[in-house]
Amino acid sequence: MRGRSVFLVLSIVVALVLVAFATGAAEVASKGLVRLAALFGQSLSLIRSNYVEEVPVETLELGAMTGLVEGADPGGSWVPNGSERAFAALGVRQVPAYGLVLGKRASYPVALQVLPGSPAERAGIVPGEMFERLGGEPVRARPLWRARVLLDEAEQRGADVPADVIDRGFEGKRRVTLHAAPATVPAASVTDREGVPVVRVARLDEAAARQIEEAFAAHADAASIVVEARGTALGDVAGAARVAAVLAGGEVSVSLARKEGKGEVVTAKAPERRWRVIVCVDATTAGPAEALVVALKSKGATLVGLESYGDTGLRKPVKAGGGQLWLAESWCAGPDGKPVLGDGVKPDEVVRPRREGDAILDRAVELARGDVKDKAA
């Protein structure tokens, strides 16, 4: 056991060095490593001697490393040796397991996106709800990737997954079952709401851009459009830029910044548009959808709702003692020039959800119709 404890402390020291350099924390790297290593060692000893039950060193290692990495990069991951293959399999999926895209909120896995017609939707799950248990396993205060791997492996087995779901407002809990069945990504759509075209995109990619272009043929004379960016997290930055160009018209750019070296600018072009763009956002607007929101904002769009999820990080693994560190290598810069990494994109007009109806969409349609005075900043 002593050998494993020493290995844990050494692993943390290696990770501290890598995180410090990755985040540019030169002072921590030069002055604080010895103190932090001693603190971890002391905490490990106290937990082993005082906790009511003996805690496996592997559990302590995973918890310590996860907290360390997420402290530097909220969307980062520590993947111990033996789990790399299962983690890598998540990155090549075109459709998420059970049609459910997970993020993290208040230490719980949270549903960022629920694909229409998927097992997750049929189970009654809606974006913004959180999970306490999946498949009988507690997932609160656990690494997010573990919950995602659990779903991925269960779907491959064709297994049904019981889930304890917490209401979006932390007001209640219920048990549902995710039944194993195929899920698909629906086409982008443009529907009419009180005379206003409302655009919904499940995955931001070239196919979605073409689908929107075709759907707009029936709405060419619209004065305003509403873009529903809530509950969207699938796609990539290039797809976000392409869809933004189709929606806003003209040339659109999305800047990807880096800690060191020159970043990348992703551009796209489409025919000019004359309409006004109103965008619905909230904490389920994530990743590529946040890049879309930033691009539309740069073209004069009005954002209505709540702050977005806050993670546009593009990550690659860094080998460390005992596993891999996945840290953001680049990220999208928000309208204020700051990274959309930990902090999300803030709306021009804050609209709080209500128990009945959809206050955010209602307000966006009002602005698009010009029924009420625009209070956007």
Features:
377 residues, six-stranded mixed beta sheet, 19 strands, alpha/beta, five-stranded antiparallel beta sheet, disordered N terminus
Topology overview:
Blueprint: H1 2-23, H2 26-50, H3 57-72, E1 77-80, H4 84-90, E2 100-105, E3 108-114, H5 119-122, E4 130-134, E5 137-138, H6 144-157, E6 161-166, E7 173-178, E8 189-193, E9 196-200, E10 203-204, H7 206-215, E11 224-228, E12 234-235, H8 237-248, E13 250-257, E14 264-270, E15 276-281, H9 288-298, E16 302-305, E17 314-320, E18 323-332, E19 349-350, H10 359-369
Parallel strand pairs: 9-11, 10-12, 11-15, 15-16, 16-19
Antiparallel strand pairs: 1-18, 2-3, 4-5, 4-6, 6-7, 8-9, 13-14, 13-18, 17-18
What does this molecule look like?
The protein is of the alpha/beta class and 377 residues long. The chain has ten helices and 19 strands. It has helices spanning 2-23, 26-50, 57-72, 84-90, 119-122, 144-157, 206-215, 237-248, 288-298, 359-369; strands at 77-80, 100-105, 108-114, 130-134, 137-138, 161-166, 173-178, 189-193, 196-200, 203-204, 224-228, 234-235, 250-257, 264-270, 276-281, 302-305, 314-320, 323-332, 349-350. A six-stranded mixed beta sheet has the order 8-9-11-15-16-19, with helices on both faces. Strand 15, helix 9 (288-298) and strand 16 (302-305) form a beta-alpha-beta unit. Helix 1 (2-23) runs antiparallel to helix 2, helix 1 (2-23) runs parallel beside helix 3 and helix 8 runs parallel beside helix 9. The longest helix has 25 residues, at 26-50. The protein is globular, with a radius of gyration of 22 Å.
